[in-house]
Amino acid sequence: MTISHRLLTAFIGITLMVLSATLLLARWSFEYGFLDYVNALEQNRLQQLSEILVEEYRSADNSWQNVDFHRLRQLLRQANLPQRIPLPTPPPREQAREQAREQARPRPPLPMPPQTVLLDNDGNVIAGAITTPDKQNPIVVAIMVDGVRVGELHTAPKRHFATAQETAFSRQQLSTSMVIALFSIVLAFIVSMLVTRKFLAPINRIATGVAKLSNGDYDSRIHQPRKDELGQLMADVDHLAVALNEAQNARRAWFANISHELRTPTTVLVGELEALKDGVRQLDMNQIESLSQEALRLQRLIDDLYQLSLSELGALNYHFESLDFSYLVKQQVASLNRQATPLGITITCQVEPHIVINGDNQRIQQLLSNVIQNSLAYTDKPGLISIKLAVQKQRVVLVIEDTPPGVTQAECDKLFEPLYRQEQSRSRRTAGGGLGLAICTNIAKAHRGSLDASPSSFGGLQMTLTLPTQNEQFNEQ
């Protein structure tokens, strides 16, 4: 069963339940209310009869024994005649139809009215007879003469419709209620259909959008402004489409870049081997060194890809221990200074001593080496690389800045994407594959830290590595 059928069934079911309960209560209220109305008329009849009996009592010297018994029986007999109960006047057409039906059909015999009984103060019957006694709740009217109670009039209350007029009126009300119920059901069905269609319209749009995404159409958007939960869901589906589209483009770019990076050293190797094979070049130490460099470049690229895949999967092995981070930074600077001097690049270092972190020695050295070598590779000569290490608010902060060429903030956000290379001044100048910073980011995250890039105040690039101190890591654990 679809959601629309379920909603429609639920709406109709609720309507039927409420309507049935309402009609039953209305019917019950009508029957008891109408009987109360009839009994009120009966009480009013007895009140009028009591006024007549008061006059008879006074004319008989204030004694029931002096009242003419036949006169009392006659009064009670007249009081027991069926009363015409005033009912609501039907509309003119209905009144004419009702009169025609009344004239066409024979009148049924009038039912026996409830017997009226006259009792004295001791409960003795003076006139009348109780043929259908109702001792539980009789209609009683006291006969008062000059403020003194001299007797009572009793009659049995009505418990059901007795006359044909009352029964016809009851049936008319029942028929009207059934017509109203039928009309309400039809109206509820129509309204339920409209509400269900209105409610399911955004859900169908979401389902259509998700179906397009599952079929690979990541350019589709729902674009329907709503302020409710469905509107938020639509916005989330659109965000998902954007994310999937970006992921697809990144995957395509990844394969294109990987193909390019692998093809370049492979093409060089094949070309040089073909030249040696054809005798264009002679096999000497220089040629062997060239082949070795290309093979090493290819090996480094494959190793970087492997390391990146492991870091993305969280499968790199980390052996955390207490490390003197200040010493590791100084060690890396001293090692890379030998490479920087021939390039005309000066490295300055300001390091607070004895900053201790909890980390993996090999991975931390790999991170430091990759970040500093990135600055060496992309800084014009003569250039400057500034390295500062300090503790700020229980966090270890390493800032590495270099001189031009610079980068924009938009480019800084892309530097950590695998195989990303600028096509302008900071273009690739080394044999790197563009994977080092992506690996460094994953290493920093594994140490509960972060690696960020921003434009440098020196005109180049600023790399900021933030790591927790050893005490902070223990507190987090």
From TrEMBL:
GO molecular function, one term: ATP binding
Keywords noted in UniProt: ATP-binding, Cell membrane, Kinase, Membrane, Nucleotide-binding, Phosphoprotein, Transferase, Transmembrane, Transmembrane helix, Two-component regulatory system
Pfam families per UniProt: HAMP (PF00672), HATPase_c (PF02518), HisKA (PF00512)
Location (main, coarse): membrane
Keyword Glycosyltransferase: no
Enzyme type, top EC level: transferase
Subcellular location: Cell membrane
Enzyme Commission number, as recorded: 2.7.13.3
Name of protein: histidine kinase
